[in-house]
Amino acid sequence: MKKFFLLIGAVMCVSTITAQSKLEWGVHAGLNLANEKVSTESVSAEINSHAQFHLGFSVAAPIGKKLPFYFATGLEFTGRGGESKNSGNKLSDNLYYLQIPVSVSYHFNLGEKVSLQPQVGIYYALGLFSNTKVNGEPQQYDGENFDFFTEYNGEQGYKSSDLGLRFGVDAVFSKHYKLGLGYDLGLLNINKDMFDGNIKVTNGVFYIRLGYNF
Protein backbone atom coordinates (compact mmCIF):
# COMPACT_ATOMS: atom_id res chain seq x y z
CA MET A 1 0.00 0.00 0.00
CA LYS A 2 2.88 2.38 0.76
CA LYS A 3 4.29 1.82 -2.74
CA PHE A 4 0.86 2.49 -4.24
CA PHE A 5 0.57 5.92 -2.59
CA LEU A 6 4.14 6.79 -3.61
CA LEU A 7 3.33 5.94 -7.22
CA ILE A 8 0.13 7.99 -7.13
CA GLY A 9 2.09 10.92 -5.69
CA ALA A 10 4.65 10.65 -8.48
CA VAL A 11 1.97 10.65 -11.16
CA MET A 12 0.24 13.65 -9.58
CA CYS A 13 3.55 15.55 -9.43
CA VAL A 14 4.25 15.01 -13.11
CA SER A 15 0.62 15.78 -14.04
CA THR A 16 0.88 19.13 -12.26
CA ILE A 17 3.98 20.02 -14.24
CA THR A 18 2.41 18.99 -17.54
CA ALA A 19 -0.51 21.32 -16.88
CA GLN A 20 1.81 24.31 -17.36
CA SER A 21 2.35 26.13 -20.67
CA LYS A 22 5.32 26.17 -23.10
CA LEU A 23 6.14 22.53 -22.55
CA GLU A 24 8.07 20.02 -24.60
CA TRP A 25 7.02 16.47 -23.90
CA GLY A 26 7.76 13.13 -25.47
CA VAL A 27 8.19 9.40 -25.16
CA HIS A 28 11.32 7.27 -25.25
CA ALA A 29 12.60 3.71 -24.90
CA GLY A 30 15.98 2.09 -25.03
CA LEU A 31 18.71 -0.23 -23.82
CA ASN A 32 20.24 -0.31 -20.34
CA LEU A 33 23.65 -1.78 -19.57
CA ALA A 34 23.25 -2.22 -15.82
CA ASN A 35 25.76 -3.26 -13.21
CA GLU A 36 26.03 -3.51 -9.44
CA LYS A 37 29.05 -2.33 -7.46
CA VAL A 38 29.76 -4.32 -4.30
CA SER A 39 32.21 -2.82 -1.81
CA THR A 40 33.46 -2.83 1.76
CA GLU A 41 35.60 -0.27 3.53
CA SER A 42 38.76 -1.63 1.87
CA VAL A 43 37.70 -3.58 -1.26
CA SER A 44 35.31 -2.94 -4.15
CA ALA A 45 34.27 -4.93 -7.23
CA GLU A 46 31.83 -4.41 -10.06
CA ILE A 47 29.52 -7.20 -11.24
CA ASN A 48 29.45 -7.59 -15.03
CA SER A 49 27.04 -5.47 -17.05
CA HIS A 50 23.60 -6.93 -17.66
CA ALA A 51 21.35 -5.95 -20.58
CA GLN A 52 18.02 -4.44 -19.50
CA PHE A 53 15.58 -1.92 -20.96
CA HIS A 54 13.68 1.24 -20.09
CA LEU A 55 10.67 3.14 -21.37
CA GLY A 56 8.86 6.28 -20.28
CA PHE A 57 7.86 9.82 -21.04
CA SER A 58 9.44 13.20 -20.37
CA VAL A 59 8.30 16.77 -19.85
CA ALA A 60 10.54 19.83 -20.26
CA ALA A 61 9.88 23.52 -19.63
CA PRO A 62 12.09 26.57 -20.27
CA ILE A 63 13.48 28.21 -17.12
CA GLY A 64 15.70 30.88 -18.67
CA LYS A 65 14.41 34.07 -20.27
CA LYS A 66 17.56 34.83 -22.29
CA LEU A 67 19.41 31.50 -22.31
CA PRO A 68 17.87 28.15 -23.41
CA PHE A 69 18.00 26.36 -20.04
CA TYR A 70 15.27 23.76 -19.49
CA PHE A 71 13.92 21.91 -16.48
CA ALA A 72 12.92 18.33 -17.26
CA THR A 73 11.24 15.46 -15.45
CA GLY A 74 9.04 12.48 -16.27
CA LEU A 75 8.34 8.86 -15.37
CA GLU A 76 10.27 5.78 -16.46
CA PHE A 77 10.00 2.04 -16.03
CA THR A 78 13.59 0.84 -15.91
CA GLY A 79 15.51 -2.36 -15.34
CA ARG A 80 18.74 -2.67 -13.36
CA GLY A 81 20.88 -5.40 -11.85
CA GLY A 82 24.04 -7.28 -12.75
CA GLU A 83 25.46 -10.53 -14.06
CA SER A 84 28.23 -12.84 -12.89
CA LYS A 85 29.51 -16.40 -13.21
CA ASN A 86 30.15 -18.88 -10.41
CA SER A 87 31.41 -22.44 -10.94
CA GLY A 88 30.28 -22.32 -14.56
CA ASN A 89 26.80 -21.05 -13.70
CA LYS A 90 25.46 -17.76 -15.01
CA LEU A 91 23.92 -15.64 -12.23
CA SER A 92 21.79 -12.58 -12.96
CA ASP A 93 19.94 -10.09 -10.76
CA ASN A 94 16.99 -8.28 -12.34
CA LEU A 95 15.67 -5.22 -10.49
CA TYR A 96 12.74 -3.24 -11.89
CA TYR A 97 11.95 0.31 -10.78
CA LEU A 98 9.59 3.18 -11.41
CA GLN A 99 11.91 6.15 -11.74
CA ILE A 100 11.47 9.92 -11.59
CA PRO A 101 14.40 11.83 -13.16
CA VAL A 102 14.81 15.55 -12.53
CA SER A 103 17.40 17.42 -14.59
CA VAL A 104 18.49 20.73 -16.06
CA SER A 105 19.57 20.89 -19.70
CA TYR A 106 20.95 23.46 -22.11
CA HIS A 107 19.83 23.44 -25.76
CA PHE A 108 22.55 24.12 -28.36
CA ASN A 109 20.98 24.67 -31.78
CA LEU A 110 23.33 23.34 -34.48
CA GLY A 111 21.59 24.80 -37.49
CA GLU A 112 17.85 24.70 -38.06
CA LYS A 113 17.28 20.96 -37.70
CA VAL A 114 19.66 19.71 -34.99
CA SER A 115 19.70 20.50 -31.27
CA LEU A 116 22.29 19.11 -28.85
CA GLN A 117 20.99 18.98 -25.28
CA PRO A 118 23.44 18.04 -22.47
CA GLN A 119 21.80 17.48 -19.09
CA VAL A 120 22.66 16.85 -15.46
CA GLY A 121 20.37 16.00 -12.57
CA ILE A 122 19.20 13.42 -10.07
CA TYR A 123 16.78 10.50 -10.03
CA TYR A 124 14.66 8.70 -7.48
CA ALA A 125 13.70 5.09 -8.17
CA LEU A 126 11.09 2.97 -6.38
CA GLY A 127 11.57 -0.80 -6.54
CA LEU A 128 8.52 -2.58 -7.96
CA PHE A 129 9.62 -6.19 -8.32
CA SER A 130 12.75 -8.25 -8.98
CA ASN A 131 14.17 -11.72 -9.38
CA THR A 132 17.46 -13.57 -9.44
CA LYS A 133 18.20 -16.27 -12.01
CA VAL A 134 20.70 -19.09 -12.33
CA ASN A 135 21.25 -20.15 -15.96
CA GLY A 136 18.03 -18.37 -16.86
CA GLU A 137 15.88 -20.10 -14.23
CA PRO A 138 14.25 -17.91 -11.53
CA GLN A 139 15.28 -18.89 -8.01
CA GLN A 140 12.55 -19.60 -5.48
CA TYR A 141 11.95 -19.09 -1.78
CA ASP A 142 9.08 -20.93 -0.01
CA GLY A 143 7.64 -22.00 -3.37
CA GLU A 144 7.62 -18.51 -4.89
CA ASN A 145 10.05 -16.63 -7.10
CA PHE A 146 12.54 -14.82 -4.89
CA ASP A 147 12.12 -11.01 -4.86
CA PHE A 148 14.82 -8.75 -3.41
CA PHE A 149 12.16 -6.18 -2.45
CA THR A 150 9.92 -8.66 -0.56
CA GLU A 151 10.27 -9.29 3.16
CA TYR A 152 10.86 -12.92 4.20
CA ASN A 153 10.80 -13.80 7.90
CA GLY A 154 11.38 -10.17 8.82
CA GLU A 155 14.27 -9.65 6.40
CA GLN A 156 14.39 -7.96 3.00
CA GLY A 157 17.27 -8.41 0.53
CA TYR A 158 17.44 -4.94 -1.00
CA LYS A 159 15.93 -1.59 -0.07
CA SER A 160 13.00 -0.48 -2.21
CA SER A 161 14.39 3.02 -2.82
CA ASP A 162 17.35 4.16 -4.89
CA LEU A 163 18.68 7.67 -5.45
CA GLY A 164 21.49 8.93 -7.64
CA LEU A 165 22.93 11.31 -10.20
CA ARG A 166 22.10 11.44 -13.91
CA PHE A 167 24.41 12.64 -16.68
CA GLY A 168 23.43 12.56 -20.32
CA VAL A 169 23.04 14.22 -23.68
CA ASP A 170 20.26 14.12 -26.26
CA ALA A 171 20.47 14.95 -29.96
CA VAL A 172 17.12 16.11 -31.35
CA PHE A 173 16.52 16.15 -35.10
CA SER A 174 13.83 18.23 -36.83
CA LYS A 175 12.43 19.10 -33.34
CA HIS A 176 10.90 15.65 -32.95
CA TYR A 177 13.30 12.71 -33.29
CA LYS A 178 15.60 12.07 -30.36
CA LEU A 179 18.74 9.99 -29.81
CA GLY A 180 20.17 10.03 -26.30
CA LEU A 181 22.75 8.40 -24.09
CA GLY A 182 23.80 8.83 -20.50
CA TYR A 183 24.68 7.30 -17.17
CA ASP A 184 22.77 6.92 -13.88
CA LEU A 185 25.15 6.73 -10.90
CA GLY A 186 23.53 5.24 -7.80
CA LEU A 187 24.48 6.90 -4.53
CA LEU A 188 22.44 4.89 -2.02
CA ASN A 189 23.50 1.59 -0.52
CA ILE A 190 20.61 -0.69 -1.54
CA ASN A 191 21.81 -3.60 0.61
CA LYS A 192 19.41 -4.18 3.48
CA ASP A 193 19.60 -7.76 4.72
CA MET A 194 21.10 -9.53 1.68
CA PHE A 195 24.71 -9.26 2.90
CA ASP A 196 26.57 -8.36 6.09
CA GLY A 197 26.04 -4.81 7.28
CA ASN A 198 29.53 -3.67 6.22
CA ILE A 199 28.89 -4.58 2.54
CA LYS A 200 27.64 -1.80 0.28
CA VAL A 201 25.75 -2.38 -2.99
CA THR A 202 25.06 0.43 -5.48
CA ASN A 203 23.45 0.55 -8.91
CA GLY A 204 24.95 1.90 -12.10
CA VAL A 205 23.31 2.13 -15.54
CA PHE A 206 24.62 3.24 -18.91
CA TYR A 207 21.69 3.86 -21.24
CA ILE A 208 21.01 4.64 -24.88
CA ARG A 209 17.56 5.59 -26.08
CA LEU A 210 15.40 6.63 -28.99
CA GLY A 211 12.50 9.00 -28.54
CA TYR A 212 9.92 11.25 -30.12
CA ASN A 213 8.97 14.76 -28.96
CA PHE A 214 5.40 15.87 -29.65
Mean pLDDT: 90
Q: Which strand order do you get reading across the main beta sheet?
A: 1-3-4-5-7-13-14-15
Topology as a string of helices (H) and strands (E): HEEEEEEEEEEEEEEE
As residue ranges, the low-confidence spans are: none
Percent of residues in beta strands: over 45%
Number of helical runs? 1
Helix content: under 10%
Distance between the termini: 34 Å
Number of strands: 15
Radius of gyration, in Å, reads: 19 Å
Q: What does the main sheet amount to? A: 8 strands, antiparallel, barrel
Structural class: mainly beta
Task: Give the overall silhouette.
Answer: elongated
Question: Care to describe what's here?
Answer:
The chain is mostly beta strands and 214 residues long. The protein has 1 helix and 15 strands; from the N terminus they run H-E-E-E-E-E-E-E-E-E-E-E-E-E-E-E. The strands form 3 sheets. An 8-stranded antiparallel beta barrel has the order 1-3-4-5-7-13-14-15. Strand 1 and strand 2 form a beta hairpin. The radius of gyration is 19 Å and the shape is elongated. The two termini are 34 Å apart. The model has no long low-confidence stretch (mean pLDDT 90).
Question: Keyphrases for this structure?
Answer:
single chain; 214 residues; two-stranded antiparallel sheet; 1 helix
